[in-house]
């Protein structure tokens, strides 16, 4: 038995022991893989729930609906109001904790309503490399992380997702849009919409892995180094500047460090 097949068997056994589960389903690579395996093992005893709000794009919600339907899993869309909570909208370093606390409170109610024993998320050991205050809420609410328990890395999930023909096998990570703002910067619906439109525009040039970090009137763009030459094209750079100015940015900067996960957490590490 290969290491991957051994991990998959472990995951299937974990889910079998759980008997029924409500999965916090973002539509990303990890949660889609978890939903697929859970649906295979538990059938209608595995239900996916996606939280929709201004912090996620409409395209992400459409993709989540499409993928859950393709898997054949029951899918519930639940609307959340993070921006109404000043503990979230004021954007403190533990912002994600308050978001997850609201999410898991509502998911707990849903799980009880549907007679499901557990709530699960798509966390993996790889997620522990970055600052993740939301994990505190995971622990407080007793949320299970079957992928982590089975020892799955993102590389493992990518490989098995490809074998299973899941469309998310090569999907880049896409955390909520609130991660685009420096801590302490007030998050509003208008700001989220602006940064979402900016990223959507850049994606139109074939750039898959990107972030537009919003620093007031400055947009700091992070892309992989392989995509940086796109911005040296005179015509493309002109189009980008024109679009970003229409969105309200006075300056547009390309971060020469390139894309990296959690760059807004770097100031926190400098303070340690």
Structural class comes to alpha/beta
Strand order of the largest sheet: 3-2-1-4
Count of β-strands: 7
Average pLDDT works out at 93
Distance between the termini: 44 Å
Tally of helical segments: 11
The oligomeric state is: single chain
Cα shape:
globular
SSE series: HEHEHEHHEHHHHEEHEH
Binned strand content: 5-15%
Stretches where pLDDT is under 50 for at least 5 consecutive residues are none
Compute the CA-based radius of gyration. 19 Å
Relative helix content: 40-55%
Question: Major sheet: size, sense and barrel closure?
Answer: 4 strands, parallel
Structure characterization notes:
With 272 residues, the protein is of the alpha/beta class. Helix content is 44%, strand content 13%. The protein is built from 11 helices and 7 strands. It has helices at residues 3-18, 29-42, 58-71, 86-89, 95-113, 135-140, 146-149, 154-163, 189-203, 234-246, 266-271; strands at 21-24, 46-52, 74-79, 118-120, 210-215, 218-223, 251-254. The strands form 2 sheets. Strands 3-2-1-4 form a 4-stranded parallel sheet, with helices on both faces. It has a 3-stranded mixed sheet with strand order 5-6-7, with helices on one face. Strand 2 (46-52), helix 3 (58-71) and strand 3 (74-79) form a beta-alpha-beta unit. The longest helix has 19 residues, at 95-113. The chain is globular, with a radius of gyration of 19 Å. The N and C termini lie far apart (44 Å). The mean pLDDT is 93.
């Amino acid at each position: 038995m290969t290491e991957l097949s051994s991990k998959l068997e472990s995951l299937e056994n974990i889910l079998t022991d759980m008997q029924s589960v409500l999965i916090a389903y973002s539509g990303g690579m990890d949660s889609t893989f978890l939903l697929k395996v859970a649906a295979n093992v538990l059938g209608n005893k595995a239900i996916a729930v996606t939280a929709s709000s201004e912090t996620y794009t409409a395209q992400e919600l459409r993709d989540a609906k499409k993928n859950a339907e393709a898997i054949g899993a029951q899918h519930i869309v639940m609307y959340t109001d993070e921006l109404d909570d000043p503990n979230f909208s004021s954007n403190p370093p533990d912002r994600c904790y308050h978001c997850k606390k609201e999410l898991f409170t509502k998911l707990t109610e849903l799980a009880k309503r549907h007679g499901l024993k557990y709530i699960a998320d798509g966390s993996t050991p790889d997620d522990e490399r970055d600052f993740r205050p939301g994990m505190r809420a995971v622990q407080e609410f007793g949320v299970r992380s079957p992928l982590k328990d089975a020892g799955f890395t993102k590389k493992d999930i990518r490989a098995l997702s490809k074998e299973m023909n899941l469309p998310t096998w090569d999907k880049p990570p896409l955390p909520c849009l609130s991660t685009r703002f420096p801590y302490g910067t007030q998050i509003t619906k208008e700001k989220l919409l602006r940064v979402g439109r900016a990223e959507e525009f850049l994606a139109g040039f074939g750039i898959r892995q990107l972030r537009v970090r919003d620093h007031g009137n400055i947009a700091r763009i992070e892309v992989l180094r392989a995509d940086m030459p796109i911005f040296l094209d005179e015509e493309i750079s002109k189009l980008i500047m024109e679009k970003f100015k229409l969105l309200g940015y006075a300056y547009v900067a390309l971060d020469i460090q390139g894309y990296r996960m959690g760059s807004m957490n770097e100031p926190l590490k400098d303070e340690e």
